[in-house]
Amino acid sequence: MDRIFTVAIIGCGSRGAEAYGREMFEQKDKWKIVSVCDTNPVKTAKYGEIFAVSEENRFCDEFEFFKEKRADALIIATMDNDHVRQCKRALELGYDVLLEKPITANEEECRSLLEAHRRYGKKVMVCHVLRYAPAFVKLKELLEKKVCGEPVMIDSIEQVCYWHQAHSFVRGNWRNSDETSPMILQKCCHDLDLLQYYAESRCESISSIGDLRFFKAENKPEGAADRCADCKLWKDCTYSAQNIYIGNWKSIGSPENCWPYNAITTAVPQTEENLTEAIKTGPYGRCVFACDNNVVDNQIVMAHFRNGVNANLRMTAFTAGGGRIMKFYCTQGEIDFEDALNRIAVRRFNQPEEIIDVNTLHFEGGHNHGGGDGGHEPRAVRDRCFTQEKGRCKHEHERRHIPKPPRERAGDKIPGRRTEDAREPAETAARARRHCHAERRARAEHPHAPRHKTQREMRAERSGLDRRRAVDAQRLPFPRISQQHGLIS
């Protein structure tokens, strides 16, 4: 009989507890959850009870939690700015770590985690779970077999979906990049990871444009209240909390425990009463035009890889449904994948189209992230962390799809950070142009009014850092990354 490994969880939210925690708890012949930690005592009590964790091993203070090692492995699923600090302490204590993405929005923190990984020699797996979802595994297989020849261009669309944007990136935990990460790292790090994974080459240059177009105070309807529960317009509002959290919940059969409804309330089972209370009092009941959000709701990224492959990624909040769309344009045909349709279309030139039904592909575990949250990631972590022999996985057929160690994943995060650095100067320039146009209109209407600084004068006062970032926007080469190991040099 295989050994049962013990697990501790810090960050008992939708990812740490609901996704990975519940999956591991159900695999009692492989894992035993022995400790939980969260700043919210209600969550600590709730998941401590669900996972049968003793009272003395439930913590609300991370410093108390990290006084000693409490398990073989640690799941870190806290907020983005906490990841590196907590992961370095976990490595120091001797944990193997499953680290929620993104690692961090800070390049120096990324490098410091690499150094800690080298120093302590433990393993850190980063949760880019789409690599283990059946459809994306199949796409990799088709590309490696060159069924349509060599890839020339990759076109990727991240359909966030209108209500998901409102839930996670306007009202929710990832609404403000000053507190967490930019949208490109938080939501689209999966997509950037896949582009580099499929291109199989170092990314040499990148450019990006995007902004917050819609979810801001100036678009708030006249007469709308700051909270949906107090608003007379809620019935006809697409983004009203009542419609998203109660109307949609009822439309799928009023489940007792289902995301995103279990994200707005800790009560189980979920009822109309506790959802209504959460809307009245919690952050998810705020008007989408009266929040402190600043992350973009649309963004385009264009990348060029060393081997000649070009790729673009489009992220938009303004879609009726979610799911990714990926198109691979190759020398002998094209491959199309549509997440929502659960199908892959292979079109070789001058040959009949081949349709692959994703539902027929083998997978284990749950369906979230296309099956990537289910058996794939926990099983791969077990193989990578605990059952490798001489560098080979216990299950050889899974070796290519195991999670990547931090030395490789940190390399993936640098393009994400540089993508945001490329976008910000463009956004600053756009704001300056709008200000200039407004200034000209104001001076035409009031020629004797006090004059504000011109665009040229404002540019002259910008710091050396801002000037350097404006130049970087024209051409941003990535740090050199070893083809063999993904090491940053």
Overall description:
The protein is globular. Helix 1 (14-26) packs across helix 13 and helix 4 runs parallel beside helix 5 (107-120). The protein has an eight-stranded mixed sheet. Strands 3-2-1-4-5-6 form a six-stranded parallel sheet, sandwiched between helices. Helix 4 (83-93) links the parallel strand 4 (73-76) and strand 5. The chain has helices at 14-26, 41-50, 62-65, 83-93, 107-120, 134-144, 162-171, 183-186, 189-199, 241-251, 261-264, 272-281, 372-386, 406-445, 455-460, 464-472, and strands spanning 5-10, 31-37, 58-59, 73-76, 96-99, 124-126, 151-159, 203-211, 298-305, 310-316, 323-330, 333-338, 343-348, 354-357. With 489 residues, the chain is of the alpha/beta class. The chain is built from 16 helices and 14 strands.
Task: Write a brief caption for the model.
The chain is an alpha/beta fold and 489 residues long. 37% of the residues lie in helices and 17% in strands.
Q: What is the secondary structure topology, with strand pairs?
A:
Layout: E1 5-10, H1 14-26, E2 31-37, H2 41-50, E3 58-59, H3 62-65, E4 73-76, H4 83-93, E5 96-99, H5 107-120, E6 124-126, H6 134-144, E7 151-159, H7 162-171, H8 183-186, H9 189-199, E8 203-211, H10 241-251, H11 261-264, H12 272-281, E9 298-305, E10 310-316, E11 323-330, E12 333-338, E13 343-348, E14 354-357, H13 372-386, H14 406-445, H15 455-460, H16 464-472
Parallel strand pairs: 1-2, 1-4, 2-3, 4-5, 5-6, 7-10
Antiparallel strand pairs: 7-11, 8-9, 9-10, 11-12, 12-13, 13-14
